[in-house]
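Hey, I was hoping to borrow your eyes for a little while. No rush at all, and the record is pasted right below:
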Amino acid sequence: PLMRHPDLRTEILPVPPGPLLGADTTAAYPTTDVTLTPGTVLAFYTDGLIEAPGTHHDHNLTALVEALSHAGHQLQDIADTLIDQAQPPGNRTDDTALLLLHIEPRPRTNT
């Protein structure tokens, strides 16, 4: 997953790989602790977003990080940017899934 901080700095989270989600109901999955502040965006994606025949994985991942750091602030704009930077639909050979999470500020309370 990727994490975009409120200052738009974007990093690859150091999450160890685990089994495919849902493939084994008894599987144990690794965890990673991170601090989420208001304005943070997390991007979870399948390999179909960054892997394509004839391309280099590291280059595609770097491009995804760059795209997220320059994407808009609305989740739909971010999703469109990340999907559009991937391979054109006609060139995709794998399914693609993208899940975005935006940490909203806590609403003010009148006390």
Summary: Helices lie at 57-70, 75-85. The mean pLDDT is 88. The chain is about 25% helix and 15% strand.
